[in-house]
Amino acid sequence: MSEKKHKYPWNHIIGFVLSIALTFLAAWTALSSDLPVMWIIISIMVLAVIQALIQLFMFMHIVEKGAGDAPWNMMFHAAVVAAIVVSGSLFTMSFGFTHDHGGGEHETEQHEEQGAHEGH
Amino acid sequence: MQLDEFFVTGEPLIYIGMAAIVLVSGTILFVLTYFKKWKWLWAEWLTTVDHKKIGVMYILLSLAMMFRAGVDAMMMRLQLAFPDMNFLNSQHYSEVFTTHGTIMILFVAMPFLIGLMNYVVPLQIGARDFAFPFVNALSFWSTFFGAMLFNISFVIGGAPDAGWTNYAPLAGSELSPGPGINYYLLGLQLSGIGTLATGINLMVTILRMRAPGMSLFKMPIFTWSTLITSFIIIFAFPILTVALALMTIDRIFGSHIFTLTGEGLPMMWANLFWMWGHPEVYIVILPAFGIFSEIISAFAQKQLFGYKTMVWAIILIAGLSFVVWVHHFFTMGAGAFVNSIFSITTMAIAIPTGVKIFNWLATIYKSKIIFGTPMMWSLAFIPSFTIGGVTGVMLGMAAADYQFHNSYFLVSHFHYVLIPGTIFACFAGLIYWFPKMFGFQLNRKLNIWAFWLFLIGFHVTFFPQYFLGLDGMARRLFTIGPEWFTLNFISTAGAFVMGAGFAVFVYCIVYSYFKSTRDLPGDVWGVGRTLEWATPTPVPKYNFATLPDVKSHDALIDMKEDGETTFDEDKLESIHMPNYTGQPFIMTAIMFFASFFLVFEWITLASIGLIGIIVMMYVRSFDYDGGYHIGVDEISKIENSLRGHDNE
């Protein structure tokens, strides 16, 4: 292999430090910021989007040319799978805690109810 | 902590296990020292980045784990052979079925298939190695150390006992205190790093490093199934990683994500687990389909029937695998609407799978079948797997599932798909590619013995279990009542026949090592259709001296017609190869110790391990090793000596 110049990977170092800092910021927001719950959720979501952008631009070669369309293809599929995970979990898990599905009350469900009440 | 809390005490069987571990490791250390093989071990195997050697190591790991989990299985069958047996107590039985399931899926099926992929895929697409050889070595060693971490649990600290599904809240720290479940979480986490990295590695390799002319639809079918499998790995494994991490935080740092108290949501574990778990079963079955397709078309001496529909069927199965997970917990009570939707998606999977079954049948229709041993496994797969598939559709009907759920009917169903599907494919694939890997054939007669023992043993073991399930026997029972005695006894007898089959198979490898002839031609079976058979046997470390232009998915058939080989003296160029390195081994060994400390919740020691890992990552980041070149003269010399036999 021909000798290449080994530039110090500042880009990666900054990205790495930023993503760690954002993680700590998110943890602090959730644990000890004393914001209202809605604002905690909103700020964590915003931090997550910034985090994703840092990953895409500083590590994932999204600005590089010449590699074809593979990254876009994978990003599309990742978005689909993420949507399935989130909406699928909501869909599946929310029905377990209501009683309006034909009156059939199952044992597991009752356990769930009890578990949830004990927590409050 | 007292020493008697550290080691598991008071179980005679576990003392036997300890003695066996000491004996086997002692023997290995002695043999390595006596024959002065330490340097060889380090220089040739522990530091290797060659995909062929890594593939072989994956398969060895998997065979060893198959022995361990197989012993677990036979212990369970012995306990269930007679009513009220007193061989294993309930706690020990729970530990045994947990480790049996976890090891069979994660440390037998996956490493075996990934080992075959490691060896075969670069050869099928005409690549020198994986896209990232260093990462490949790292993947293997993290799988290896993950498996070791999981395996030492039964002598140090106690094995996990919440089933391979590890459901919360049973697996939470209130109901399962102690290191057991931590072993499960961290062992899987460690090996999961390797699996995910392999998925990325294989995908890049297949997308970027194919021989000239090999478009996606000219790839061999096994490579296709590997590409789709790596796609599923990339999208499914992060879900497991997150779920494991959340439960680890729950158990070690006291959060309330899956706990009963503090607004935890225990059912979310089942949900996340199966969001990974269902794609996971396709991760272990799709490569198996690829292996059978290769073998069936080779030994039927015909082009694979419906190559394109086969590919689309794999893609469709992969897509559907992400939208069926709820069928693993229909009885959770998600409601009729949710269950109906997942019932329909589940049954839809039977369609592309059926397409594949008919394509295999059409491939062997009116063909001249050569009954090579890999073909026998493949032919046995079709009817056996179909029984598993049909019962799967029965389980997929949500209403009926309320009857079948958690019974031996289910146990029998998933063994009927996983054994004829994955395990038969592993045997078939290993026998098929064995001569390519090691330069000698496996003894046919012993192989046939192993095949019939295993096949008959399998059906005798699991067919009665369908009826046990219908008779109301629940899974994970540690004793049986007298009404289930007859069928259970038959099942146990079958399990020991299967065990004998495995023993004959291992003996066959040892026997063949001493007795088989070497000096094999490149196309060992004489029926090869794809590029891996164009290489000389044994395969030179750079794989291909030169590459042909690929015109169809049966590259070797075209090459034979045109009189081409992978050694065209006019096209020779020097070959760039990666250097071996000990970094992956050292890095994952540190991870192993860090995870081990975390299992016992020794946070300080675990943090020191974490620092060690970061240091190793730093070292790797500034490692500018450019590899080395093999000159044209040397390639000529190697190829001529290997092909001397071919040119006669």
From TrEMBL, chain A:
GO terms for molecular function: cytochrome bo3 ubiquinol oxidase activity; oxidoreductase activity, acting on diphenols and related substances as donors, oxygen as acceptor; proton transmembrane transporter activity. Pfam families: COX4_pro. It comes from the Bacteria. It is found in: Cell membrane. The chain crosses the membrane at residues 12-31, 37-63, 75-97. The keyword Cell membrane applies. It is a multi-pass membrane protein. One of its GO terms (biological process) is electron transport coupled proton transport. It catalyses: 2 a quinol + O2 = 2 a quinone + 2 H2O. InterPro entries: Cyt_c_oxidase_su4_prok, Cytochrome_c_oxidase_bac_sub4, QoxD. Keywords: Cell membrane, Membrane, Oxidoreductase, Transmembrane, Transmembrane helix. Its EC number is 1.10.3.-. Its main location: membrane. It is an enzyme of class 1 (oxidoreductase). The keyword Transmembrane helix applies. GO terms for cellular component: cytochrome o ubiquinol oxidase complex; plasma membrane. Catalyzes quinol oxidation with the concomitant reduction of oxygen to water. Belongs to the cytochrome c oxidase bacterial subunit 4 family. This is Quinol oxidase subunit 4. It comes from Lacicoccus qingdaonensis.
Automatic annotation (TrEMBL), chain B:
GO terms for cellular component: plasma membrane; respiratory chain complex. GO terms for molecular function: copper ion binding; cytochrome-c oxidase activity; heme binding; oxidoreductase activity, acting on diphenols and related substances as donors, oxygen as acceptor. It is a multi-pass membrane protein. Heme A3. GO terms for biological process: electron transport coupled proton transport; oxidative phosphorylation; respiratory electron transport chain. It catalyses: 2 a quinol + O2 = 2 a quinone + 2 H2O. Gene3D superfamilies: Cytochrome c oxidase-like, subunit I domain. Its cofactor is ferriheme a; Cu cation. InterPro entries: Cyt_c_oxase-like_su1_dom, Cyt_c_oxase-like_su1_sf, Cyt_C_Oxase_1, QoxB. Pathway: Energy metabolism; oxidative phosphorylation. Its EC number is 1.10.3.-. It is an enzyme of class 1 (oxidoreductase). It is found in: Cell membrane. The chain crosses the membrane at residues 12-35, 56-76, 96-121, 133-156, 183-209, 221-246, 281-299, 311-330, 336-358, 379-402, 414-434, 446-467, 487-510, 585-618. Belongs to the heme-copper respiratory oxidase family. Catalyzes quinol oxidation with the concomitant reduction of oxygen to water. This is Quinol oxidase subunit 1. It comes from Lacicoccus qingdaonensis.
